[in-house]
UniProtKB/TrEMBL annotation:
Ranges of residues in domain Periplasmic binding protein: 42-307
Protein name, UniProt field: YtfQ
PANTHER family: D-ALLOSE-BINDING PERIPLASMIC PROTEIN-RELATED, GALACTOFURANOSE-BINDING PROTEIN YTFQ
Underlying gene: ytfQ
Main localization of the protein described in the UniProt heading: other
Amino acid sequence: MKKNHWLTALIGIIAMLFLVAGCGSNSSASGSSKGGKVTLGFSQLGAESQWRTANTKSVQSAAKKNKKINMKFSDAQQKQENQISAIRNFIQQGVDVIAVAPVVETGWETVLKEAKDANIPVILVDRMIKGKNVDDLYSAWIGSDFTKEGRKAGDWLATYMKKQNKASEKLNIAYLQGTTGASAQVGRTKGFAEVAKTHSNWDIIEKQSGNFTREEGKEVMEAFMKSSGDKINVLVSENDDMTMGAIQAIQEAGKTPGKDITIISFDATNDGLQAILDGKMNADIECNPMSGNDVMKTAIALKEGKKVQKKVYVHESLFDIDNAKKNMPRPY
Ligand code: GYE
């Protein structure tokens, strides 16, 4: 009997020792992985479009999946001042890396200099910045070549007219711009204008910003239709959300989108490609929002002090009636 008691006690002690050791190793494992985590502050510019929602989802899910990342997210509701204070907050919290999708191109020098002085590397996502010596103020940029996208829109239109033997027809173009001063707006407008200039029969008769939203796209198109609805035969719209609003405005004005008015848009969302299949839109220039994994990889590399590629262009194509169907459904 007595011997059994001792045995039980001994087993108990051994079991306890195992438990303690187990706990110890567990806590040190999670402690070290926590210590090794990269804290990334991401200032997203807003939630103005389906493209943006897809971009946010891509970044958030890549962060969640990546065991090395701990992400803090902030939505600026399309206001630069909100982005500036979000960046200042990240600096104050001592994050390891800051990622920003800048709403407009200019006005970033001061705050990015503050990040630099705090030794926090900055990744630009999607849109670009402009200004004196700004290239020294960020470590990497992951986004699209917006000027190229604008040129693609112009080239597509030229080919489309040629195919119908209408290359010399007078084109009265209405042009819906994105958020004024955003690099996505500036680049697309510039690229399209470059091509338009080479066609003496192309005239941009209306041009205004719809701020990349469906509501404003509709409002601005309504105004275009009121002032030049009888003349407009082409619409170029700098994103699919504005285009969806514009299509509604065109229909309400008694015209047939895609036929009376040739429509070229950007982003290539599901709605955009569906509109092509429905005959309401003619071409959609792809802009790829799925940059989440690249952002995480870059953030980790920067934290580890590795050299990263300064500019990463995401791959993009173009859709029209010839290839829309086989590329459905889209991931966004
Ligand atoms: O085209 C638009 C969004 O910056 C590329 O922003 C992005 C643009 C995109 O609101 O839908």
